[in-house]
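Chain entry —
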Amino acid sequence: MDKTFNLETLCVHGAYHAKDGEPQVMPLVQSTTYRFQDPQDVADLFDLKSLGSFYARIGSPTVDNFEKKMALLEGGTAAVATSSGQAATLITLLNLCQSGDHIISSAKIYGGTTNLFTVTLKKLGIQTTLIDPDCSLEEILASAQPTTKLIFAESLGNPALNVLDIEKFANAAKQLGVPLVVDNTIASSYLCQPIQHGANIVIHSTTKYCDGHATSVGGVIVDGGNFDWANGKFPEFTQPDESYHGTVYTRDFGNMAFATKARVQMLRDLGCTMSPMNAFLTNLGLETLHLRMRCHSENALKLAQHLEASPYVDWVNYPGLNSSPYNQLAQKYLPKGASGVLTFGVKGGREAGDRFIRNIDLTSLVVHVGDLRTSVLHPASTTHRQLSEQDQIKSGIRPELIRVSVGLENIDDIIKDFDQALQKACQ
């Protein structure tokens, strides 16, 4: 597929192109293994001398086509699909870090990622410094240590909804000689292009907007192909890998070195593989990503404007609002729309918020975001409950905050449901 095609066309077609007599729809290949006639062909695959499917833990035709589409959508050189978004984050970090290394991360990220950094990776000897993503370039640089191996942030924070100044973070990463890893889940590949602004690696929980229908858990890592792994900080990329007969990733795989190492080392050893069925279903979701993200963004903006004028609402946070402190950054990094997630606080605090959720009808209470159905959640007691109240506030989580994932229903019906629930909550 021509990389110069517009994103809408890439969403529909991706890298799959049917030849004469082949399926028009990317086929689901539901097989764990693949047959060969010559033992040398299998040996070459294991030695990384040739590419192809031989065991589904490393890759399969359906997953491969999905990965190629994600690489096209993000403007990267290669991608690696995983069993979940959390697996994509973990594999990315372990592909870069080992015991004794250090990570700089935005504090305003998904609570599960914060817990991964500050609890699980800490047990492995990897330390993390959490910083305010709105801090200055100098403050980012000051948080670095000699063992810092990457900077991590979300393009659109979940659920703080801060818009990351990607170029500022990319500048800091470049000065430190480390890659910038951006989680682009909430913004989506259609609305935001982190690699164009200097990011080196992009990850997604494909469970969210990539799928868009709440059917398939998954994740993906996209290699930007734009980082110098030979700068002296990452010897595992430039020195022979004895587990692959002396393979040198930068020498043998060029601008796909990161993705290749993530696949043949991390995916091989950790087994966090995306199933062919989930790749097939998520690819179907991607075919309408551009249409869905436009509607999600339009509906979210209209609901945010309505809530901002409601006598029952204390505050509203949505980057698309003119009143948002992130509005200018949203116009720069999210020119097609500010995605479908907003947060707000009901007058009366947490108790009134509980009553609001109890009275919703059309809207669903689910532990999810990015579905085509409108849903709400109270993050302080769910997705971020493992954090202390102080750490929740640092992450942008107020006790009364309600997160809304605005769906694709008619906006008048969504507003009607919110109005009746707010009125009952605040009587």
Q: What stands out?
A: The first helix runs from residue 7 to 13. DSSP finds 17 helices and twelve strands in the chain. The radius of gyration is 22 Å.
